[in-house]
Write a structure and sequence with these properties.
heterotetramer, A: alpha/beta, Rossmann fold, two-stranded antiparallel ribbon, B: alpha/beta, 2 domains, 5-stranded mixed β-sheet, 14 strands, 37% helix, globular, binds thiamine diphosphate, binds magnesium ion
Chain lengths: 337, 323, 337, 323
């Protein structure tokens, strides 16, 4: 097997054995890690990233384990620490980097920054900054899928903090009343910016909110990509069967500050160490060895290949020009001939 | 056979639903009940629950779900029970729907119907004209028909448009005005104002229910020998500055009229457009007749004092004509 | 004991035996019924009411059983079918009628209509139309009470339908995270306008939403004023003790259309009959007889006295002038000398 | 000792909290963390959790709770992490807070701090200037200081005001501008514009960060022999029409400048006020320099093209001066 397991936009539609899946998971987690490390620790510090930077370090298993389940009929609405969802869905690293650098070859041609990107051809809906705003939108996508007689499911991503927003409640309630095919995917990384869970919600788990919507809600080890993948398969099957939405609460930890300029002094010392031991990439590799899906000498070449991929992508993105200011006024409305 | 403004909207919706299976309706009490104003009465029975979706009381979800459905290629028409409650789903409209195309090239065909306007003793929360929240938001289209003809033609255009459209329908016109409508399918283009009465001495620029107030005033003024032109904007965004400016260029005087409150109202945008484009043609100050800067009061004498009417228009118009 | 049990604004601060309480409950339920009947069935049809009319027929036990618990430090935020809360808090029927008729002697001097009234001297916050908007406001009132070192509680009223709104979720969540002294009082009358519960929420009870906020949630027979009162005492004590908010779901039925112009054709026939048998006033009287708190011949004089009170109030309100249009521009901002 | 704009806000908040125990802060990450922009750094330590309340991510609850606390006699100051998110608590502001006094005589003293404005490469959701949503809503007060002096004086006035105040603080000014502030307590009255540079040939009316752009432009124009007056509105609602009109009366020419997008922007209201009140004094069209009608783009060349700057002002000003 080659070290690179990129699958193109709709991996969920393909079959593949356990070992193959594991390699694919590992590849995307490693790519997300490398890409975000490069952005946050290198390009940002070099002043090459134009705006803010938010990464999903330590949380890679969540976008990878979920997005790999999604097929062509499914719609993804990722949040701001779900970089792998964009990669898996088919936006290449080089174009993502161009976006971060404000270049014309970013998916939004410089109009938007960082992970604010989407492409309806890939059934990938762009995040907006207002947290949880995509939750009712996901319900609408799911409604459309059912309306169109498709078996697709909407994957709606958000963090623990976003569940405090009114839009979250309205969207989840609407989906549950209408029994819409939505998989709600919460990355519970225990912080929202500097705000710990206990100042965000009075219940212990986001999953404790399931009963309010008569919706199955499952707590998942968010640092175990296989657990996330399995739970997502289960959740998507439920939704696809017309049984209504399903909530996955993936427990994890944000192994960085909120953004590149936040040193996270408010996080009790020790938490980073403790969660560092649960790193999803290391755990994935360990499982692969244990199951005999890979041999130890395969990992370094993979890492090298991923580094190379990101090196190339950076070089490509840096060559991309800035957008022409003459395009400033385009596309506020549909162009009419 | 004369058709009311309300019936015109109904017809427009019905015909579009017949024409295009992607068009569907969602909102509170629009299905079984037929809507608070009965605009969608009979739709549920005819089109079924798939295409006429009763929702929970969740304006953000109604609008958010419309965005999602629109992104997926459907053509949702969301009803706000009253325009006043559009503020509850505000972020979804101004930050999500309005910006998708510019930000990431995604089309969001959707219509939000917003029954607005006063004169029905609805008090502060069932009478507002909140169009300016949207007119100041690039990426949205905003229409406000005054006639049954335009109500039908614009709801059709709004549904066929590939950008999000806020459709303000004036509650006070629902059953008050009627006209004969053409038999077949027709549309009224978004973005085109209309000179609904030609005149030489003064242009009254207005929209919505105030068109009728302007026409009333023009009748009276005509008896006094003043020839008043009335421009019905019909679309507030994108604004048809050409028609407005052409009229003012011709008459040299402008009176701006709206039912909405004054400060930050549509009249400001019109005054700016006029004074930057056709200043040289102006023979008099640009005046405004609007509601004053208060919430909409409930008690009839207060609401009567609040709302613009023909008398208030006539007074300012006379002054302008004599100027 | 006199037939009339009006107590002035802060009944919760006073002691009083069971029998006395029962008489008070009965009086306020009867007064609310009579007043709203008069408004909806007479004055509205006579064209004397300026705007829309929404009544709480059949639900009287809820505002009565709760508001009687509230003392001077407590704040009430009633919803649109809680007429008795205004009466109990000290707004007389005649002024309420003046409000409905758009007269200057209404509490808002003609600026507002129907049950949109409040008075901070009575710790009574006006509803706004946007459903559930008062829920976060109630949390803010409760925060202020704690801030000021008072033992007061905020009583936050809403219907089943209002719980679908984002503001409801945000307000309840904020109150629960902050452990604020709020009693949330839901009148679950099974419809929101024409929308039945099943199209409003996927869970069976509003109380099923309690765990989402780690908040005790109790289902109460909303047509039994004594049950409502007892539960409110319990809930208020919980909140006052600093244990956080408490949700009371009062099951009841709206014995009218949504508003005076709605014939409620969408309600299955039989429901009105079925719930009519559970009329809170009849049940209160029956209990009073059973417990020996009243004799059967006391009820007709009470009813007559209430009718007289409302007759007088109508006459008074009809004499009240309309507001002077010259006041139109006042009070948008504080008047500065 | 020179004080930055950000530090001036901080000082104003701090001094008001020392002065009045009813003043308290609430918002996301304002306590332990000290706020996204560190405006409230150190407050939690000094004033404690009672008076510096970290909230869940719930803008409607933050604003709603502020209303409740204000009704009860406290003086809440709510922070929106970015002005852009004020749309998430919109209904609470425009329908609840704004209308309490008029509807039922209740005072709602509260301040919503809204860090706004572009030029920081924040993209569409961290750069907006949403003041017009509020300027069109009677019952609100809206301020937008341009200087450190006004930032401090206006936050104090806003806190002491008995009506709800939306306080727009421009992120681009936070650390960019400084000045020496007077030692003692002072306030800047809400509702008063200020002529920040006197001139004879043209009035530039503006506010917020654009005041600095106008002053820059005026410097260059002075070298060319044109005498430009700059009016800083400071308060957008209630609008100080007197100062604006007096300036235009004097110079006979008006250039309206704002960072917000054009259609439905503040310039419209100003144009209407000027052309209805001092039309006879005008010697030239009223021109606008504003951002164009698009979302705020992210990439530097696009954002630079989007934002008004001295060059754009100078071009229009030259034309007006020569007119
Ligand atoms: C409505 C809204 N309020 C505030 C913010 C600012 N903000 C951006 S991310 C964030 C924290 C989000 O926490 P969570 O949902 O747990 O996601 P995480 O960052 O932890 O993945 C905040 C407060 C925002 N984007 N939207
Ligand atoms: C945000 C909002 N949307 C819609 C309405 C219109 N409306 C008024 S009352 C009502 C039904 C309320 O139902 P519920 O909360 O159950 O209270 P009930 O009337 O049954 O007591 C609706 C939809 C409103 N007032 N506010
Ligand atoms: Mg989080
Ligand atoms: Mg109900």
């Amino acid at each position: 097997m080659s070290a690179i397991r990129a699958l193109g936009p709709f991996p969920g539609d393909r079959a593949g054995g356990e070992a193959e899946l594991a390699h694919t998971c590992l590849y995307y987690m490693a790519l997300m890690r490398e890409l975000e490390d490069r952005i946050e620790r290198k390009l940002y510090r070099q002043g090459k990233i134009v705006g803010g930077v938010y990464v999903g370090r330590g949380q890679e298993a969540i976008p990878v384990g979920t997005a790999l389940v999604a097929g062509e009929d499914d719609v993804l609405l990722p949040a701001h620490r779900d970089m792998a969802a964009f990669l898996i869905r088919g936006i290449p690293a080089r174009r993502i980097l161009a976006q971060y650098m404000g270049r014309v070859d970013g998916p939004t041609h410089g109009r938007e920054g960082n992970m604010h990107m989407g492409d309806m051809k890939l059934k990938l809906v762009s995040i907006i900054s207002a947290l949880a705003a995509t939750v009712p939108v996901a319900a609408g996508c799911a409604l459309a899928l059912r309306y169109q007689g498709k078996s697709g499911v909407a994957f709606s991503y958000f963090g623990d903090g976003a569940t405090s927003r009114g839009d979250w409640h309205e969207g989840v309630n609407f989906a549950s009343v209408q029994k819409l095919p939505v998989v709600f995917i919460c990355n519970n990384n225990q912080y929202a910016y500097s705000t710990p869970l206990s100042a965000q919600m009075a219940c212990a788990n986001v999953a404790d909110r399931g009963p309010a919507y008569n919706m199955p809600a499952e707590i998942v080890d968010g640092n175990d990509v296989f657990a996330v993948h399995e739970a997502t398969v289960r959740a998507a099957a439920h939704a696809r069967a017309g049984l209504g939405p399903y909530l996955l609460e993936c427990k994890t930890f944000r192994m960085t500050g909120h953004s590149a300029h936040d040193a996270a002094h408010y996080v009790p010392t020790g938490m980073f160490d403790e969660w560092g031991k649960l790193d999803p990439i290391t755990r994935c590799e360990a499982r692969m060895l244990e199951k005999g899906w890979a041999s130890a000498d395969e990992f370094e070449p993979l890492r090298a290949a991923v580094r190379q991929e990101v090196d190339d992508a950076v070089a490509w993105a840096e060559k991309s020009p800035y957008p022409d200011p003459a395009t400033l006024l385009d596309d506020v409305y549909e162009r009419r001939e | 056979m004369s058709t009311t403004y309300l019936e015109a909207i109904r017809q427009g919706l019905w015909e579009e639903m017949e024409r295009d299976p992607n068009v569907f309706l969602l909102g509170e009490d629009i299905g079984v009940y037929g809507g608070a104003f009965k605009v969608t009465a009979g739709f549920f029975e005819h089109f079924g629950e798939k295409r006429v979706v009763d929702t929970p009381i969740s304006e953000a979800a109604i609008i958010g779900a419309s965005i999602g459905a629109g992104l997926m290629g459907l053509r949702p028409v969301a009803e706000m029970q009253f325009a006043d409650f559009i503020s509850c789903g505000f972020d979804q409209i101004v930050n999500f729907a309005a910006k998708c195309r510019y930000r990431w090239g995604a089309s969001v065909p959707m219509v939000v119907r917003a029954p607005s306007g006063g004169g029905i003793h609805g008090g502060p929360y069932h009478s507002q004209n909140p169009e300016m929240w949207f007119v100041r938001t690039p990426g949205l289209k905003v229409v406000a028909p005054a006639t049954a003809y335009d109500a039908k033609g614009l709801i059709k255009s709004a549904i066929r448009d590939n950008d999000p459209v806020i459709y303000f329908e004036h509650k006070g016109l629902y059953r008050r005005i009627k006209e004969d409508l053409p038999a077949g399918d027709y549309t009224v283009p978004i973005g085109q104002a209309k000179v609904v009465r030609e005149g030489r001495d003064l242009s009254i620029i207005t929209y919505g229910a105030m068109v009728w107030v302007a026409l009333d005033a023009a009748d009276t003024l005509a008896e006094e020998g003043a020839s008043v032109e009335v421009v019905d904007l019909r679309t507030l965004l994108p604004l048809d500055r050409e028609t407005v400016c052409a009229s003012v260029k011709k008459t040299a005087k402008a009176l701006l009229l709206h039912e909405d409150t004054r400060t930050g109202g549509m009249a400001g945008e019109l005054a700016a457009s006029i004074s930057e484009s056709v200043f040289e043609y102006l023979d008099a100050p640009i005046l405004r007749v609007t509601a004053p800067d208060t919430p909409v009061p409930y008690s009839p004498p207060l609401e009567d004092a609040f709302l613009p009417n023909a008398q208030k228009v006539i007074e300012k118009a006379r002054w302008l004509v004599r100027y």
